[in-house]
Each structure stands twice: as structure tokens, then as C-alpha cells.
Amino acid sequence: MTGMKKGKQVYCRIFQTGLKLALPFLPYRKPKIVGSVKKLPEILRKHKCESLLLITDQGIAGLGLTRPLERALAESGIRCTLYDRTVANPTTVNVEEALKLYREAGCSAIIGFGGGSSMDCAKGVGACIARPGKSLENMKGILKVRRRLPLLIAVPTTAGTGSETTLAAVITDAETRHKYAVNDFPLIPRYAVLDPKVTLSLPPFVTATTGMDALTHAVEAYIGNSTTYGTRKDALMAVQMIFENLDLAYEDGSNRQARKEMLKASFYAGCAFTKSYVGYVHAVAHSLGGEYNVPHGLANAVLLPFVLEAYGPVIHKKLYDLALAAGVADEDMSCQEAAGHFIAAIREMKRRFGIGDKIPEIREEDIPKLARYADREANPLYPVPVLMDAKELERFYYLLRG
């Protein structure tokens, strides 16, 4: 039973119900899927784009993953300015630096090429161009951009974040280390390039943690209180594809079919949580990323089974559905038994991938502050199955600290 004060509980549920009722009337859209980076010059020409900003990180640039795209752009006469200084959990400084390059080069399009960090940075730049008189800080929360961005294209190199489908950009304030989200419909990329070739060099551990990030998106979207027929379908499909393909991609990084299926799984999971939102796994993970730079996928993977267990019987029926999709339970099992099998399967998955149960960076004196960050992010926005206040959320930090 939640310890949250009754008034706050009522406010959260009314807020969430209002958002759910508004869902059919909101301008959600899915990005157009493109199968290869080599098709982008044609798309850019169609949009009359002569100069673009390519946002990535040094790891991706160092591996040469952007070179085929850069060559294709040069052959088509499209000028490409590269910004490759994005860090994990992108900061306000990253956005400012990239924005300066965009303006200096006279760009008219942005490509976010990499993991969620590069795509979030690209969205942040787009938001600042759309609202030049407004700081990112003033756009945090929901529906505060409200203007069309320049052409935005996402090229995910990891199958996990789902940022190529979402209306969110998660940015870390470079000074305070506080992590916040800017959420608005113009931030959904126009095109998502699901090209397995750019994911082939992903190391096994990153393949695992980003794959479990996608799993967390699908699970939290499915067990929340704001699902639709479409988001439930997308979430179940994503869970099935992840359980069928993540181990294959982890064990053999050159398996293109498994990589392709994981990109699709991440896309569908992203579509599910864009409409139906996430929950306390994400809220706690974001606070850890902001404070200690813990990679988001890793934090989600570590947290997921703990939070599912804390929700208790309220989610057993939904976990039964997910367990069937994952192939880890039989139809004749009870909901409680199937839920137990699903949580156990996630724990076993973590064990196979060498993902532990601790985040050693957590300092005890930081826990109240981190829990307040998580509380502010999640309540009232996330339609979680069981409401928890900051004091109750502290338990997860203590569990992870050991």
C-alpha cells in the first residue's frame, strides 16, 4: 500500500486519467522507417536540404560508423558539419556547442547518429532552434516547445533507447547535474533509420544493457495505467522479439538478422512508451545517470526486477501476458506463477549478461536528494501501477547500494 498522502494520490490519478482521455486527440505520430543510411541523401534532397548537422559521440566517430553516411552526403553535394562531443547523459553544454555549429554552418537539418545520448542532444538542438528565445530549462516538462523543429532524422546505433520514436529529450544540467526531460510532439524524429550495419560493432555488454533498456520500455509501458490497444500490441511484440533475439546478438555481434530484429524491438518499445509512458525504474535510473553518469540502460537493467517485485500482485495479470509473449510461462499457469517466472527470467538474463544487482557509485548521503528527483519526475506524470513517494523510493537506492 502506498504511503503517499491521500491528496497527492488523488491529484496524480486525476492528472494521469486526464492525459489518458486526451490520448486519442494528441498529435502522436510514428517516424517513417528507413532501412539504410545510404537512402538519406535522397530524403534530404526531397526536403531541399543543402547543409546539415550530424550529431554523434567520439566513440561512434572513432569506429568510423558515420563515414558511409558522410561519403554518401558528399557525393550528393550535401554539406555535413560533424559534432562528435556528445557525452553519455548529454549536457546543456553539448546542446550549446552543437547549436553554435548548426548556426555557423547555416544548416537546415539535424541527424542524431548514435545511442540515446546523441539523439537526445539532436532533439535539444532542434528545440532551441524552434524556440530561440527560450532556454532548455524553460522547456522542461510537457508541451513547452510547441513549434516545428528543423528536419530531424535519427540513426540509432544501439537497439535500446527507442529515442528514434519518442517525443522526449533527456538533458543533464552541466552545473547542477540535475537530469530533466523536455517532452513535446515536434521532438519526434521525422525519419528513423533502422540499419543493422551500424550496430554490428556494438560490444556485447553494451548490446545487453541497451537491449534490456528496450525491455524496460516495453514492460513499464505495458504495466502502467495508460495503455491503449496499440501500445499493448507494440509492447508485447517488443518483449517477444527481445527474448528471441537479444541473446543471439549478445553472443554473435555479427548476426545481422538478430541485430535487425533488436532494432525493430527497440522501435516498437519506443512507440509503446511514447504514448503510455514509463515508471519508477526510469525515474530512479535518470537520477543515477544525472548524479553519477551511470549509463541509462545499465541502471534500468539493474533496477527492473526490484521495481517489478515491489509493485506486487497488482501487476501479476499483466506480467502473465508478458511472460507468455516472452515464452517463459504456459497458459495454464496462475498469474502469480507466471509473474514469478517473468521476473526470474529477467534476473537470469542479467546473470547471463554479467549485469549485477548493485550500483556502487551511490553514496548514502545523496539518497534523499536522488529520491526527491525521482519523485518529481514520476509523480504525477507516470501512470504507475502503485504510487510511491520520495521516502518509499529511497528503498531502491539502498537496495542497489548494498
Question: What's the SSE pattern?
Answer: HEHEHHEHEHEEEEEHHHHHHHHH
Q: How much β-strand is present in the residues?
A: 5-15%
The rounded Rg comes to: 20 Å
Largest sheet descriptor: 6 strands, parallel
Residues in helices, as a percent range: 40-55%
Q: What shape does the CA trace take?
A: globular
* Low-pLDDT windows of residues: none
* Number of continuous helical runs: 15
Oligomer: single chain
Order of adjacent strands in the largest pleated sheet = 1-9-6-4-2-3
* Integer average pLDDT: 96
End-to-end distance, in Å?
24 Å
Task: Please identify the structural class as seen in this structure.
Answer: alpha/beta
How many strand units?
Answer: 9
Task: Briefly say what this structure is.
This protein is of the alpha/beta class and 402 residues long.
What does this molecule look like?
It is built from 15 helices and nine strands. The protein is an alpha/beta fold and 402 residues long. Strands 1-9-6-4-2-3 form a six-stranded parallel sheet, sandwiched between helices. Strands 5-8-7 form a three-stranded mixed sheet. Helix 7 runs parallel beside helix 9. The longest helix is centred in the middle third of the chain and has 23 residues. The two termini are 24 Å apart.
